[in-house]
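tokens incoming
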């Protein structure tokens, strides 16, 4: 009795699927043999690369901040100032006392191109070459005659990098870049900047 061609279709289909699977396995094996060191997982950034990425990030809520603090003296005589640069604004704020009473504030507009040039200049000044020590406590540092400096990267109102150094030899901090270069870069963002502590800072 004639039964048609159906019984022959199933074996042919299975054979085709088997051939396709075998070819796919062979292609995968050949690729793995030709690229034995291929790593599909993203490489982790070094601390320097991570900091550089934060500095170069031009999201509108990102900013970098430079703070200069004087000697530890009476509250009435303690002074500090802070320069904050973002893709949209620049500010220079002078403080009196340990509670950061604002005694002067200047604000200016900024733009993404200017911010890009500025942050790349910070990288050229090697600001990302930070000490890996997790010592971000600047309390009491360089108390009698010197100055202390703090560099921060900011994400909105949050600090995600905090590096510091000082003029005191026994308190080098975690910031290894040349402070004079960094100071020049930051104060040059503020028109008619007037030093608070000496002829530079």
């Amino acid at each position: 009795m004639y039964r048609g061609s159906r019984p022959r279709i199933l074996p042919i289909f299975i054979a085709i699927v088997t051939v396709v699977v075998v070819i796919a396995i062979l292609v995968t094996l050949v690729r793995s043999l030709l690229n034995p060191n291929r790593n599909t997982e993203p490489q982790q950034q070094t601390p320097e690369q991570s900091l550089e990425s934060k500095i170069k990030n031009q999201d509108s809520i990102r900013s970098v901040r430079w703070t200069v603090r004087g000697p530890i003296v009476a509250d009435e005589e303690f002074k500090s100032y802070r320069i904050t640069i973002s893709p949209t604004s620049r500010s220079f704020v002078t403080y009196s006392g340990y509670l950061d009473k604002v005694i002067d504030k200047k604000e200016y507009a900024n733009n993404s191109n200017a911010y890009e040039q500025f942050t790349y200049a910070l990288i050229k000044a090697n600001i990302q070459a930070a000490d890996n020590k997790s010592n971000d406590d600047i309390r009491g540092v360089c108390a009698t005659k010197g100055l202390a400096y703090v560099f921060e990267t900011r994400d909105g109102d949050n600090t995600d990098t905090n590096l510091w150094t000082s003029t005191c030899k026994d308190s080098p901090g975690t910031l290894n870049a040349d402070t004079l270069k960094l100071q020049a870069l930051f104060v040059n963002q503020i028109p008619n900047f007037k030093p608070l502590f000496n002829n530079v800072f």
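note: The first strand starts at residue 62 and ends at 69.
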